[in-house]
Amino acid sequence: MNLAAVEAPLLVLLLLAAALRWPLAGARLLVEMTVVQNASSIGAFCLDGSLPAYHLDRGFGAGAGNWLLQFEGGGWCNDVKSCLERANSRRGSTRLMNKWEDFSGILSNNASLNPDFYNWNRVKLRYCDGASFGGNALFDNGTSLLYFKGQKIWESIILDLLPKGLGTARKALLSGCSAGGLATFLHCENFSKYLPRNASVKCLSDAGFFLDLRDTGLNHTMRNFYRDLVALQGMQQNLNEDCTAASYFPELCIFPQYSLKYITTPFFVLNSAYDVFQFHHGLVPPSADLRGHWNHCKLNPAECSEQQIQVLQGLRISMLSALRLFYEYSSRGGMFINSCFAHCQSESQDTWFGEDSPTIDDKTIAEAVGDWYFGRRNTKEIDCAYPCDSTCHNIIP
């Protein structure tokens, strides 16, 4: 037997295995979908009745006992018409979703791209309920059937992950972007109850700090939208109980500015002070700008008039005001509020941790989150007002 002939293909296989585990910088990591086959036993269904799903990339080495869960984002549906449309799209049905997801940014398994969480078990929870994983209702008019079961979807995924190692996690981080960032506020306290008492459990919301503010037409566009969402999808029962008990308007506890003070689990708020979703849909929704005076400003901040910039500075002031008590009194909380026109900055590699990533005081988002999670230093970073930050990636849809 030619020993060299045997060793050569074995070496190739070992090198291939290593490449899959530790990819080269820039290589894509595609992770296959896992459908929760027994989700129906607790009544967990997407809008169209399909089963919930997630993507799991296993941790390794020192991170094998740690878990990072990331809620997928993607807006909401707050009436039957929009939910029926959503049920026939990838936002409302796992049947119509991509079966492989690209893991980058905070989900990357490359130490040079994600230095603190690369070797953790990393999970993306697919979003198919249209209510930030928070509803528990059913719509059936005899013709159309819609499952508003986001809360059950959350529970079914957790129950599926617990015997896969989540139940014995040493460290855990619940995160999410946009509607998924809002889901992090909704489920942070509940998440910690599933895990061992001695586990280090923390939560991170990226672009999920949606404000209860008046738009430029002096209307409560976001408040009215969320009220309809809460009522339609039966969310109020799943909002923070301490918040709803203390509020004259319990449905408003969907807004993080009202519920955050009741969250005892350590929390990190990552947001742009000029979040483009809130700018385009909350501050200046189409209904408040029928003549399109804001069109050029929305596409390019450099095209904004002096008066429009003043309105945008008001958005920043509103966000900082809503976060003031958290900034001053939360000893275990963290913040990174930059002045970029962006929405979601943790899942994109160039904004999470790259050569020219956005920074505050020379600290990238990944470094700020890592410093906070591991207690390396106190991290509450607030950027100066636009247009002072030259490191921004202004991402305008």
From TrEMBL:
Its main location: secreted. Residues 1-27 form the signal peptide. Pfam families: PAE. One of its GO terms (biological process) is cell wall organization. It is found in: Secreted, Cell wall. It is an enzyme of class 3 (hydrolase). One of its GO terms (molecular function) is hydrolase activity. Its EC number is 3.1.1.-. InterPro entries: PAE/NOTUM. Keywords: Cell wall, Cell wall biogenesis/degradation, Hydrolase, Secreted, Signal. Hydrolyzes acetyl esters in homogalacturonan regions of pectin. In type I primary cell wall, galacturonic acid residues of pectin can be acetylated at the O-2 and O-3 positions. Decreasing the degree of acetylation of pectin gels in vitro alters their physical properties. Belongs to the pectinacetylesterase family. This is Pectin acetylesterase. It comes from Cucurbita argyrosperma subsp. sororia.
